[in-house]
Amino acid sequence: MAQIAEDLFLLLLDNAAAQPALDRHRREKVLSAAVLLDLAYACRIRPAMAGEPIEAGRLIALSGDWPADPVGDPAFQLLQRRPLSAQSALAKLSRHIQPSLELHLERAGLIRRVRMPGKGFPGRAAYCWPLTNRDRVSQARAALLAALFDGHNPVPAIAAIICLLHAVDGLGAILSLNDRGWRWVHARSTEIATGIWVDEA
């Protein structure tokens, strides 16, 4: 299950507009990276190491009997064809991840597609995606806030989400804070992104 990517997308949709609150370029980058992190956490891919016949750092698809994952499988199949650098993989995946997440989460009953009248380019409709069930996004938001403000050690999915949003300066897409709050969040998210919290724990 693509928990990191799904929870991240639900958090980005959790607003009055029911549209992902991050510009397209950064959104495509973090959602694609989230899918790769989901695959890595499930031990389906890994980076090549120095001394292997593949260039170090390139992402390798691992063999195994994996359950179907409608969000992660296309990315896995891409890496099965040949190892890629993370940058190349992100570029190839960026346009396809959000539509996969929209369809999967709609089928799972967590969001619904609503056409926005008068929006979009000619011949291309625009949609918003209101949440139909708030349980999962509420749990993800509570875990994220506990990690950022209460000093809780984040579970892997939440740590990944914080790292991804921190990397693209995107935490403002899901949090609304005053200056003091942002100073705190910046410091704490830096601790999580750099792994300092692991040393402390």
Tell me what you see in this structure:
The structure is a single chain. The protein is 52% helix and 5% strand. The protein has a two-stranded antiparallel ribbon. The chain has helices at residues 3-13, 24-41, 73-81, 86-93, 97-107, 135-149, 156-167, 179-194, 196-200; strands at residues 45-47, 59-61, 114-115, 127-128. It has 201 residues and is mostly helical. Helix 1 (3-13) packs antiparallel against helix 2 (24-41) and helix 6 packs across helix 7 (156-167).
Biggest β-sheet strands, sense, barrel: 2 strands, antiparallel
Distance between the termini: 27 Å
- How many strands? 4
Question: Segments where pLDDT lies below 50 for 5+ residues?
Answer: none
Structural class, from secondary structure content? mainly alpha
**Given the structure, what is the number of helices?**
9
**Helical amount among residues, as a percent range?**
40-55%
Order of helices and strands: HHEEHHHEEHHHH
Report the portion of residues in β strands: under 5%
Shape: globular
Radius of gyration: 18 Å
Mean pLDDT: 91
Strand order of the largest sheet: 1-2
